Amino acid sequence: LIELDRAHLVHPVASYRGHERTGVRVLRSAKGATVTDAAGRELLDGFAGLWCVNAGYGHDSIVEAAARQMRELPYATAYFGLGSEPAIRLAAALAERAPGDLNHVYFTLGGSDAVDTTVRLIRNYQTVRGKPEKDQFISLEQGYHGSSTVGAGLTALPAFHANFGLPFAWQHKIPSPYPYRNPAGSDLEAIIAASLAALRAKVEELGPERVAAFYAEPIQGSGGVIVPPRGWMKAMRDLCAELDILFVADEVITGFGRTGPLFACTEDEVVPDLMTTAKGLTSGYVPMGAVFLSNRIYDTIADGAGEAAIGHGYTYSAHPVSAAVGLEVLRLYENGLLENGRRAGTRLQAGLQSLADHPLVGDVRGRGLLAALELVVDKARKAPLPAAADPARRIFDRAWNNGLVIRAFGNGILGYAPPLCCTEAEIDAIVERTRRILDQTLE
Ligand code: PMP
């Protein structure tokens, strides 16, 4: 398998970074929070795949929901307006649970095309309401909004921009409210004030009549699990409303119980104009994303320009099998999974906090089952681990050898996003194995 993989399978990102030299690691099976490799070795999945297998692996009821739907009706094209019962029921169930009046659901295949979809819908909305000049988009440094071309331009990773002329001229960034490394200091009010000032300044620079929307993740995931101060999102959302800018919450990672509630923006009492989700929506068993639209935005587009304005979609939009999985996963969330995730999340945060005294740990942060350690070589100066001395790959390997899968970001940040089904013993094992990894990194 490893030979075939090297010869033929292109791994997104990994294949270009020499991973093929150390060889792909083939997973054979998985159950709950445990994955088993081809040699039969069991590891704890502290990252739920790619922050997505929220319900854990091997749920028979999810498999049965998919199989039942495959037998009954495996496909119906939303393109011709053909509906299917699971897609309609899932849209209705999501609308009922979404914040405020986000009552309209546009299903996609994942997070990147959900973000693309918001850009198109927003341009349509601004045009239909007579403001076509509102065509500038703002997002955050350290933000991640997908790897499709439009999403990659909103994403703040330089590696995603090279060779493609990204970001597009209409895509702009303002600094992240990164508490551990914010030039405004560690005072949370000062950080919020700095973000508000940066957004105002950017809007002023672009022209207040030109800005269409501002994008933010409730917690910046791929940027290194950066947790904005409490009240930050509400303050930014309110400023957007004042400036006639749409506020888009990208909940692709934070949605579906990762931080505690079904949607993280509710913790900050924020009702966004649009919201993107994916990952936990189907718990990674099948691909699906969902864009939520407010009544005002949907009605404006639908009444104002009909089909022409909404005119884009995908062969697999509102896929019945994905929707059937989504319905079953939602049932699981509401029958103990969210509650278990909240308990496990409290334990994970406390467990990781107990590592704060470790000489390598500069910062411990997170909420619920979303967390990170930021490793430094000098706590006072917050000097990052030198990339050459201990690149992400080595930390990943060290974790793997200790029976733990976590995300090792390139800058000494270790990311955690275990499944919501984790037991207390599994959370404790994640923390203990991490302690061992840190000790070995120190050696
Ligand atoms: N938005 C955010 C916040 C994400 O974290 C991701 C994926 N990590 C995406 C969008 C893109 O989702 P996908 O990989 O499913 O296209």
Q: What this model shows, in words?
A:
The protein has 443 residues and is of the alpha/beta class. It has 2 domains: 2-58 and 337-442, Aspartate Aminotransferase, domain 1 (Alpha-Beta Complex); 62-332, Type I PLP-dependent aspartate aminotransferase-like (Major domain) (Aspartate Aminotransferase, domain 2, 3-Layer(aba) Sandwich). Helix content is 40%, strand content 16%. The protein contains 14 helices and 16 strands. The protein has helices spanning 2-8, 19-22, 48-51, 60-72, 85-97, 111-128, 149-154, 158-161, 188-206, 232-242, 295-310, 320-353, 392-401, 424-442, and strands at residues 27-31, 34-37, 42-45, 104-108, 136-140, 171-174, 211-216, 246-250, 274-277, 289-293, 361-367, 370-378, 383-384, 404-405, 407-408, 413-416. Strand 2 (34-37) and strand 3 form a beta hairpin. The chain binds 4'-deoxy-4'-aminopyridoxal-5'-phosphate (PMP).
